[in-house]
Specification:
The complex is a heterodimer of chains A (about 190) and B (about 270). Chain A is about 5% helix and about 25% strand. Chain A has about 190 residues and is mainly beta. In chain A, the strands form 2 sheets. In chain A, strands 1, 4, 7, 8 and 9 form a 5-stranded mixed sheet that branches. In chain A, strands 3-2-5-6 form a 4-stranded antiparallel sheet, with no helix packed on it. In chain A, a hairpin with a 6-residue loop joins β5 and β6. Chain B is globular. Chain B contains 4 helices and 12 strands. Classes of the chains: A mainly beta (about 190), B alpha+beta (about 270). The interface between A and B is large, with 84 and 92 residues. β10 of chain A pairs parallel with β1 of chain B.
Chain lengths: ~190, ~270
């Protein structure tokens, strides 16, 4: 079997706004339906300025922890949960999704939402995770979280808002810099480039 | 933030060359080649405050990350692969076909997955409202396409060859002609957005975005190949470009490793 070298990534650039967004791209669950919550936050750069030209995608199990294989993300029918969505940040660097709380994919696992980030000025995509804050035993047992010092670990935890929604901010650089992931077996360039 | 004086292309090229020279020395000293762009690449000025300063954290992908969202023909119409038929008239420019295959790191086809593209028109102008380049908008060209890969990982788009366009990274900065590609794999960990370029572009050595991939072999992987076999008489020129995703990270069974058509590829 071949062992091929992966094609390099490149920045999403400034002009994706007429290409990647689509109607209801950020509505994994229809707003107002039972169980639907809002997930929101702000994406900021190394001096804390909001990034208005970033795009985030989330991919998550359903509320029961099932990984779904439903098509229809690009033409949402308002009922089918596909587990995937896309949100662009606006002028204030803010993104919003409506979704459901992800369930645990196995007993005792800490539920999380997988995230990939693209932005103008970001030369390649970055992966990270958003963990639900509640199940402290599961969070304590999570292999990724356990491998991080406390101040970095907290960047992966959402906070619960009074209305039941989730708040999670992404800091690309500097104080409170979000933990970004490299999946083992991958061949990515380190952050400290040339 | 104070905005320093804008650099000339000559100063920018010197910066690019200095980084390239350091990289060549590291290769000569036995370092492994870098296959992806450097996140910290100062010649691309917008990257200065938009790259993480801490190393990426190694982790094993978990259940959800080992799967990928599903897309199907309810999501994408086959007509979306032809960017030249969106409006009533023919777009201006050189009609081209861009075709290739999406493969994983083991050379297996990535079947049934979403490919999205977007690009400037033949004059180097994007439809995007923030594009201020005073080149003409083409009323017959939007520059957005989508398709779902075939069982053999294949994709094909009919479009117009995009023009080079100026950006304000430094004085007289021009991007080489390119098409943006967005791809999904069979695992979320394989998600990638990149750019495809055209062979022989004289702007390659001058462009900080292309050069943010410091390894020449890696950069070459973004350049399509002209293919006369894909060229249609009296109609369009053909370019081939295959895309290899990272991974996969999990072990596949023998049956899964064979393409749906039972073919061994590569």
């Amino acid at each position: 079997m071949d062992n091929l070298t992966p094609t390099p990534g490149q920045t999403v650039g400034p002009f994706f706004g007429y290409a990647l967004p689509f109607e209801k791209d950020n509505e994994l669950a229809a707003p107002g339906r039972p169980g639907s919550i809002r997930l929101q936050g702000t994406v900021t750069d190394g001096v804390g300025a909001p990034i208005p030209d970033a795009i985030l995608e989330i991919w998550q199990p359903d509320a029961d922890g099932n990984v779904v294989a439903e098509t229809g993300s690009l033409v949402r029918d308002g009922y089918t949960f596909t587990g995937w969505g896309r949100a662009s940040t606006g002028n204030t660097g803010r993104y919003t999704f409506t979704t459901v709380n992800p369930g645990a994919t196995r007993p005792g696992a800490a539920p999380f939402i997988a995230v990939v980030l693209f932005a103008r000025g970001l030369t390649n995509r970055l992966f990270t995770r958003i963990y639900l804050p509640e199940d402290t035993a599961a969070l304590a047992a999570d292999p990724l979280l356990a491998s991080l010092p406390e101040e970095r670990r907290s960047t992966l935890l959402a906070s619960r808002e009074p209305d039941g929604g989730l708040r999670w901010d992404l800091r690309l650089q500097g104080d409170g810099e979000t933990v970004f992931l490299e999946f083992d077996g991958g061949r990515h360039a380190p952050a400290q480039g040339a | 933030m104070t905005s320093p004086r804008q650099n000339t292309q000559q100063e920018m090229s010197a910066e690019i060359q200095a980084i390239a020279s350091t990289y060549r020395q590291s290769l000569a000293a036995g370092a492994a080649p870098l296959t992806q762009p450097s996140l910290d690449y100062a010649p691309y000025r917008s990257s200065i405050l938009r790259h993480p300063t801490k190393n990426l954290h190694h982790t094993d992908p978990e259940t959800i990350e080992l799967a990928s969202p599903a897309f199907g023909h309810q999501d994408v119409s086959p007509l979306e692969a032809d960017l030249t038929i969106v409006h009533n008239g023919e777009p201006q420019g050189e009609r081209i076909k861009v075709a290739g295959r999406v493969l994983d790191g083991d050379g297996r086809p990535v079947a049934g997955q979403l490919v999205e593209i977007w690009q400037a028109n033949a004059a180097g102008r994007y439809i995007h409202k923030r594009d201020q380049h005073p080149a003409p908008i083409d009323p017959n060209f939007t520059g957005v396409g989508r398709c779902i890969t075939g069982a053999d990982g294949s994709y094909a788009f009919t479009t117009i060859k995009p023009g080079a366009y100026p950006w304000k990274n430094h004085i007289n900065a021009w991007r080489p002609a390119h098409i943006h590609f967005s791809l999904f794999g069979s695992e979320f960990t394989q998600r990638i957005i990149t750019q495809m370029y055209f062979p022989g572009d004289q702007l390659f050595p001058l462009d900080p975005i292309y050069q943010s991939i410091v390894d020449q072999d890696a950069r070459d992987r973004l350049v399509a190949t002209y293919n006369h076999e894909l060229t249609s008489p009296e109609w369009s020129l053909g370019y081939n470009w295959d895309i290899v995703l990272t991974g996969p990270k999990r072990t596949w069974t023998e049956t899964e490793a064979l393409g749906e058509d039972g073919e061994h590829h590569g």
